[in-house]
Design a protein that fits this description.
The complex is a heterodimer of chains A (about 850) and B (about 260).
Chain A: H1 2-11, H2 13-51, E1 55-59, E2 75-76, H3 79-84, E3 89-95, E4 97-98, E5 102-104, E6 119-123, E7 132-137, E8 145-149, H4 150-155, E9 163-167, E10 172-183, E11 191-195, H5 197-205, E12 210-211, E13 213-218, H6 224-235, E14 240-244, H7 245-292, H8 294-302, H9 307-346, H10 361-386, H11 407-429, H12 433-466, H13 470-487, H14 489-527, E15 532-535, H15 544-551, E16 556-570, E17 576-584, E18 596-598, H16 601-605, E19 609-613, H17 614-619, E20 627-632, E21 636-646, E22 661-663, H18 664-670, E23 678-683, H19 689-700, E24 707-709, H20 711-754, H21 756-764, H22 769-807, H23 818-844, H24 848-853
Parallel strand pairs in A: 6-11, 8-10, 17-22, 19-21
Antiparallel strand pairs in A: 1-13, 1-14, 2-12, 3-13, 4-6, 5-9, 7-10, 8-11, 9-10, 15-23, 15-24, 16-17, 16-20, 16-23, 18-21, 20-21
Chain B: H1 2-7, E1 14-25, E2 32-43, E3 47-51, H2 58-65, E4 73-78, E5 81-82, H3 88-98, E6 99-102, H4 114-125, H5 131-140, H6 156-169, E7 174-178, H7 186-201, E8 207-210, H8 214-217, E9 222-227, E10 230-236, H9 240-254
Parallel strand pairs in B: 3-8, 3-9, 6-7, 7-8
Antiparallel strand pairs in B: 1-2, 1-4, 4-5, 9-10
Helix pairs in contact in B: 4-6, 6-7
The chains are: A alpha+beta (about 850), B alpha/beta (about 260).
Chain lengths: ~850, ~260
């Protein structure tokens, strides 16, 4: 039996090729993402392990903000001397290292990385743990001198002797580059500027007596943990965070990890899509092979093979296919990881391909995914194969399994679909974001499953409509292609399902993102009253110098600052909510239209008061006049009165849950050294908008990190941010479509083989090659469009429900991007034509006589 | 082509003609001659049967005459047209417009109903069928109440009748039938042969049938006997017994079984 299985596997290897390709793709993404993240993790673990001090003393991080505030938390530099007295301490150093700076060259261009990685200014203090060494020039001596890292110098064409401008929070200063420092370890992608330790604290922190952390060297024989305990006992742990080298390395890696996790999850998303779509392809391939081999299987049964043996022989074939696919996929995954590592290098993160890590988990995951998926996908077809009766060997067998009733599918699909619809309806009417989101997730999964199950039932009605015009448009060729697509609904359904999954995702995401864009537009129209906004395109805060320069620009009438701070509020319902609050200048009414349910702007911005979103307030039993305990960074606390309840959207998706705001003086009081995030600018009477814009642009020329935007520009900025999300979805879609095309090619190719005799006859009675090709092309188009219509319909429902969930967060507008949807339908027809190219060519090349005689 | 036209006059009562028709498979030492310089004339308006033992080349002869297969040497005319040397596209059109086919295994399109199968060649050509003629064919074959049925809903005999109607529907110059009774029981087989006979006698069609069944051959006007790629004998107004007797002589000559060619 095994011999027969092997023979059969080898005999059908051509027909299994596309299935193998689908397995290769999914395994490659799984293996590639694992290898990549293992490599990156190992590289950075090593980097941070080698650069972390034995013990580090940091300022207490009690509140972390997801919105950058620009404030730098510090410790007194004198703490270094205090710690040095602790027994077991060999040495201490007061570190100065900040990221809230911008460094520009002589052409007002930033020398910082364009990838979102930070620019770091730090003191030049060389130890055995330093990640860099001086490779040319000399160490910086006094103010006005600095070192630059070699990668940045190289990329931005900075040489020794060049002058750079450093825009730091205390003030802008110019430095001459006197030397180049080269990374001895992996460069994580940041730009580094080194200053003389004697001046670093004053220039970067504004005071020579501050430091950002204290690095401690342990004496011989003292463990990090013991030393950490002793230092904690000496200086107290109330205001300081103490970390051993291991803890420091872990926390640094975790900070970087966020970015790397994104890459990992994107890759796993690709793997997931590839696997999901691949399953359909494999199910279809095995179903078709078994249908074609009905007579052969019947013969095996007639000769005495029992059902289990038949089933096992099919599953053995599947496992063989899985093994081959996984092995190739593992190889492809290594290639993919190599490519990603190279890509990271292009982004300035110098990973070494020679240090690639392939942990034992990678091949295990690869084979589990590859073989597992193939096995699962082949299981149903294998069971069907086992039910072939011995009589099939004797019958003049037409292909089996065509006319079997789809009743089970109808019932299961109906039940799952009803549950999914109920979940979606529930999500659309829910009033709490959390429950709505989980209902949405459940509804999406259930309706997807239902559509996949019930897909074959929809084949007849939908394709009747879609292909209804074919006979009129394309004559008998059109009629035959429509009928061929209807011939085996199971097969058509499964083939289209692959395309459906991808397009449903796209449909949903495009509705959601179009709705988001529209909502933001409406919100901007409704609330934004400023002529111009000065802002960083990544919403990063900027130095006070910029604010001063903007204020000083001729023609500027009013400047309202916006500044963020992390806070935690204790609410009357007992909950403690950590969020980010905004501070505004008092004339905010002139640059924004805020509606209040109670109170007004003046009451909200008054000292000791705050404003809050009315829905959030109601949810937490806050009333106008309630007094709340508010915590600020660094352990500062205040009792604040609720002065106003606004209609302003709470924006919990952007880290500003509750829509808390107060006067900017409050922020300055509790978070000194913070930076402004936005400036809302109105023109003075007598100045035109164009005049002011060009003046502001001239003022801001030395500050490449901020731009002037009017309302239209601001909308575009928001749209661009949303578009980034869409690009990712489109990339996922691209992959899904590639595999779906493979699926359509696969189905058509196997159908062509199956219909060899029929095609021979058509050719004999005078069907031209061109007509035959058109027939197959039309069949392919109708299958692809069927998948697209089903997918988009599902996606539209998902999108509308997603919008309902977003509406709970204030994104109330619904927009359906009909242009995109029509383009996708047309695109799917093109996909159908492309997929039919090879099968059609193959069919038209068939020898007529051989085809007629074909069994 | 001008010489061909001169050698193959359009109207001398010949529907198809072959001269020096040779078909070889393989090349050099291993070449097998399926047809060895065959000269044949198919008379218009008659029912011609081609018989011969397995491997005698009868199917190859039919395929070549019908423009389904290429020839190694020699010339073939269909009416006044020399088809040897025609390009693939012209051959396809010729088959579509001027030739009708019947095969042993019916070869109907399973997705089309009987009526659609019958008019398929004309549909492909984009021509309107001649309704009067079509009605006559359908009634002659007794398919009136089966027109909306799919092939899977028809018996073997009915399917072959549909195939027969399809071959007749476009009123082709020549109908080729390749073992049309091979897959039918004797009663259904007789029925189909009766229809072919009627097509010739009452509808004035020209039919060439390849068969190995002497009983089927007896329905024809003329039997051509093939052996080893040559026409070795002919018999006008055959009877089943006479044909059987003639066939037995082949068996004596070369043993009862040869390699099956199709």
């Amino acid at each position: 039996m095994l011999k027969a299985t092997l023979r059969s596997f080898l005999a059908h290897k051509g027909r299994l090729m596309l299935s193998a390709l689908a397995i290769v793709l999914s395994v490659a993404f799984v293996a590639g993402s694992l290898i990549f993240s293992d490599t990156v993790t190992r590289t950075f673990d090593r980097l941070f392990a080698s650069t972390s001090a034995d013990v580090t003393v940091d300022p207490k991080q009690d509140l972390k903000s997801s919105v950058p505030t620009g404030a730098v938390q510090t410790v007194p530099a004198a703490l270094a001397g205090q710690v040095a007295k602790v027994a077991g301490v060999a040495g201490t150093h007061a570190d100065v290292s900040v990221q809230n700076i911008v460094v520009v060259d002589g052409h007002n261009k930033s020398v910082g990385p364009t990838t979102g990685a930070p620019t770091i200014a730090t003191d030049w203090y060389l130890t055995h743990r330093s990640p860099v060494k001086l490779t040319s020039g000399h160490a910086p001596q006094g103010a006005g001198q600095a070192l630059l890292d070699a990668d940045t110098a190289d990329k931005k064409h900075v040489r020794i002797g060049d002058t750079l401008t450093v825009q730091a929070q205390p003030g802008t200063f110019r430095v001459e580059i006197v030397g180049i420092a080269t990374f001895t370890t992996t460069n994580p992608g940041a730009a580094l500027v080194f200053l003389d330790p004697a001046v670093a604290a004053k220039e970067l922190l504004g005071s020579p007596g501050r430091a950002t952390s204290i690095s401690v060297d342990a004496a011989q024989g003292v463990t990090d943990a013991v030393l950490k305990g002793r230092i904690g006992a000496a200086i107290g742990t109330g205001t300081y965070d103490l970390k051993t080298a291991d803890e420091q390395a872990k926390s640094s890696a975790a900070d970087l990890g966020g970015f790397l996790d994104v890459i990992k999850y994107v890759m796993l998303g690709f793997a997931g899509i590839a696997t999901l779509v691949g399953v359909f392809l494999i199910v279809n391939t095995f179903s078709m092979l078994i249908a074609q081999r009905t007579r052969e299987l019947g013969l095996l049964r007639a000769l005495g093979a029992d059902r289990r043996q038949v089933r096992r022989s099919v599953l053995t074939e599947a496992v063989l296919l899985g093994l081959v696919g996984s092995t190739l996929g593992l190889g492809a995954g290594i290639g993919l990881a190599l490519g990603l590592i190279k890509l990271m290098t292009a982004f300035g993160m110098n990973l070494k391909t020679t240090e690639m890590v392939i942990g034992w988990g990678t091949p295990v995951a690869a084979y589990v995914v590859g073989v597992g998926v193939t096995f699962v996908a082949a299981y149903l077809p294998a069971r069907r194969a086992a039910t072939v009766s011995p009589m099939a060997a004797l019958a003049d067998a037409e292909i089996a399994g065509i006319g079997k009733p789809l009743r089970t599918r109808a019932i299961v699909g109906g039940i799952v679909g009803a549950l999914g619809a109920a979940a979606l309806a529930g999500c659309a009417t829910a009033s709490k974001t959390a429950s709505a989101a989980s209902l949405l997730g459940l509804g999406v999964v259930l309706t997807l499953i239902a559509t996949v199950i019930a897909g074959p039932l929809l084949v007849r009605p939908v394709i009747r409509v879609l292909g209804g015009a074919f006979p009129a448009l394309f004559g008998p060729v059109g009629r035959m292609s429509q009928r061929n697509a209807l011939r085996n609904p199971r097969r058509t359904g499964a083939t289209a399902a692959a395309l459906m999954v991808g397009l449903a995702l796209v449909g949903g995401m495009s509705v959601a993102s179009a709705s988001m864009s529209k909502s933001f537009d409406q919100q901007i129209d409704r609330t934004l009253g400023a002529d111009f906004i000065v802002q960083n395109s990544n919403f990063l805060p900027f130095t006070g110098e910029i604010t001063d320069k903007v204020r000083g620009t001729a023609g500027v009438g009013l400047v309202v600052r916006q500044r963020f701070t992390p806070v935690a509020v204790r609410l009357p319902d007992g909950k403690r909510v950590t969020t980010t609050a905004a501070g505004y200048d008092s004339q905010v009414d002139q640059v924004a239209h805020v509606a209040y349910k109670g109170g007004d702007t003046a009451a909200a911005l008054a000292p000791g008061s705050l404003g809050m979103n009315v829905t959030f307030a109601e949810d937490h039993k806050v009333r106008l006049g309630s007094v709340l305990a508010v915590e600020f960074p660094g352990g500062k606390r205040a009792e604040m009165k609720v002065g106003a309840l606004s209609d302003q959207d709470s924006g919990s998706g952007f880290g500003t849950q509750g829509g808390l705001f107060f006067g900017i003086a409050t922020v300055q009081k509790y978070v000194p050294g913070g930076q402004d995030s936005s400036l809302y600018v109105n023109r003075a009477p007598g100045t035109t908008a164009d005049q002011l814009r060009s003046r502001l642009e001239r003022t801001l020329a030395p500050y490449p990190q901020v731009q002037v935007r009017d309302q239209a520009d601001y909308k575009k900025l928001v749209h661009d941010q949303i578009a980034v999300l869409l690009y990712l979805v489109y990339a996922l879609l691209g992959l899904a479509i590639v595999i779906a095309v493979l699926g359509v090619v696969n189905t058509l190719a196997l159908s062509v083989v199956e219909r060899t005799r029929e095609i021979g006859l058509l050719r004999a009675i005078g069907l031209a090659r061109r007509q035959l090709r058109r027939m197959i092309r039309l069949e392919s188009v109708v299958i692809a469009v069927f998948g697209a219509v089903l997918g988009l319909a599902l996606g539209l429902v998902w999108g509308v429900c997603t919008q309902q969930v977003l509406a709970l967060q204030g994104l109330k507008a619904l927009a359906v991007p009909w242009g995109t949807i029509i383009a996708v339908v047309i695109g799917s027809a093109v996909v159908g034509i492309v997929a039919a190219l090879l099968p059609a060519l193959r069919a038209s090349r068939m020898n007529v006589l051989a085809a007629i005689a074909h069994e | 082509m001008s010489t061909a036209a001169a050698e193959g006059p359009a109207d001398d009562g010949t529907a198809a003609r072959a001269r020096g028709l040779t078909k070889a498979y393989g090349a050099g030492e291993t070449a097998v001659l399926a047809l060895d310089s065959v000269d044949v004339d198919i008379a218009r308006g008659r029912f011609t049967a081609v018989m011969g033992p397995s491997g005698s080349g009868k199917s190859t002869l039919m395929h070549c005459l019908a423009g389904l297969d290429t020839v190694s040497a020699g010339q073939i005319w269909l009416g006044g047209t020399e088809i040897t040397g025609l390009r693939e596209r012209e051959l396809t059109r010729l088959r579509r417009d001027r030739i009708g086919f019947m095969f042993q295994s019916f070869n109907l399109i399973p997705t089309l109903n009987a009526a659609e199968n019958i008019t398929l060649p004309m549909d492909i050509a984009g021509r309107k069928p001649d309704e009067k003629w079509l009605d006559q064919v359908i009634d002659t074959l007794g398919l009136r109440d089966r027109l909306k049925h799919r092939p899977a809903q028809l018996s073997g005999g009915q399917q072959q009748r549909v195939a027969c109607a399809r071959a007749l529907a476009s009123r082709p110059e020549l109908i080729f039938a390749d073992e049309p009774t091979g897959n039918l029981d004797s009663r259904a087989g007789l029925e189909v042969l009766g229809f072919l006979r009627e097509a010739v006698d009452q509808l004035g069609q020209t039919v060439v049938m390849v068969t190995h069944d002497p009983g089927a051959a007896a329905h024809s006007d003329l039997v051509l006997f093939l052996a080893d790629g040559r026409i070795v004998d002919r018999m006008e107004d055959p009877t089943a017994d006479a044909v059987l007797e003639r066939m037995k002589r082949f068996d004596v000559g070369r043993g009862s079984s040869g390699p099956e060619e199709d």
